[in-house]
Design a protein that fits this description.
Strand order of the largest sheet: 1-8-7-2-5-3-4
Order of helices and strands: HEEHEHEHEEHEHEHEH
Shape: globular
Structural class: alpha/beta
Number of helices: 8
CATH topology: Glycerol-3-phosphate (1)-acyltransferase
CATH class: Alpha Beta
Mean pLDDT: 79
Helix content: 25-40%
Distance between the termini: 57 Å
Radius of gyration: 18 Å
Length: 283
């Protein structure tokens, strides 16, 4: 109820203060489970995306936003679900929460890059979004968002009016479903998940009009730039597991971190970070 009330109140305000352009909205299914996968450059991505989607969107949000009564009501009202960040059991719960939402026929939104990009580029995505498609049998709709970084640059709390924001939805993409949903490790091919995610991120880059770079967003410590972190940063990444595949080396199940999905994208595999560092600093 609160979600729709806030949407009714905020929509005319946003449309008055900003020029909002929408393309490809027909690609969003009118009902049933699906994943919206978008680029992420500003906190207000998580405000403009629900604004233009006719269905309710659910984000997995870092639980710290719910610790204060001053902010908890708002994040619950806009469809956020609190998730404690961290590896192990916390990561497993984030994955199971996403699956539960999809099983209930809901529309969830993720940022496959795992956190906000500070350089206006679209970066390499985490393969968790591919695994959600495969293990839940759902479509992933690529979303390109442009203009929000001008409305609210990283570190700025106040949104700047009179800018243009464009949201473009692409054609749905889908992984081949797992042959045995009760045991998704069976038939898992990380190379296929990686290829799907790479194609998804390139499509997101095309839709957003931003260049694509085939490397992860570099980890950064908290500071002024993170003061206004987006509500979906906590679970946006649904990251690769420590061994890069999301499953234990013997193929028996999930990797030792419990699920292979890091809520904030922080537990990406060390090998991937090494590859990214090697590209930045060739020997």
């Amino acid at each position: 109820m609160a979600y729709w009330l806030l949407k009714v109140v905020l929509t005319p305000v946003f449309l008055l203060l900003w020029r909002v352009r929408v393309e490809g909205r027909a690609h969003i299914p009118p009902h049933g489970p699906a994943v919206l996968a978008a680029n992420h450059q500003s906190f207000c991505d998580s405000l403009f995306l629900p604004l233009v989607v006719p269905r309710k969107i659910t984000y997995l949000a870092k639980a710290e936003y719910f610790d204060s009564r001053k902010t908890a009501w708002f994040f619950r009202g806009v469809g956020q679900i609190p998730i404690r960040r961290g590896g192990g059991k916390e990561s497993e719960r984030a994955l199971e929460t996403a699956k539960d939402e999809l099983a209930a026929g809901r529309l969830i939104a993720v940022y496959p890059e795992g956190t906000r990009s500070l350089d206006r580029l679209v970066h390499r995505g985490r393969t968790g979004v591919a695994r959600l498609s495969r293990e839940c049998g759902v479509a992933v709709i690529p979303v390109g968002i442009a203009g929000t970084v001008d409305v609210q640059p990283v570190g700025r709390r106040i949104l700047r009016p009179w800018r243009t924001v464009t949201v473009r939805f692409g054609e749905p993409m889908r992984m081949e479903p797992a042959p045995d949903p009760s045991d998704p490790a069976v038939g898992h091919d990380h190379a296929q998940c990686r290829a799907f995610t790479d194609a998804l991120m390139q499509e997101i880059a095309r839709l957003s009009g931003s260049p694509y770079v085939d490397e992860y967003i570099a980890p950064r410590t908290a500071g002024p730039a993170d003061a206004a972190a987006g509500p979906a940063d906590a679970a946006a990444g649904l990251a690769d597991a420590a061994n890069g595949s999301g499953y234990a080396p013997d193929g028996s199940g999930y990797a030792p971190d419990g699920s292979g999905y890091a809520p904030d994208g922080s537990s990406s595999d060390a090998q991937a970070r090494d590859r990214s560092t090697a590209r930045r600093h060739p020997s």
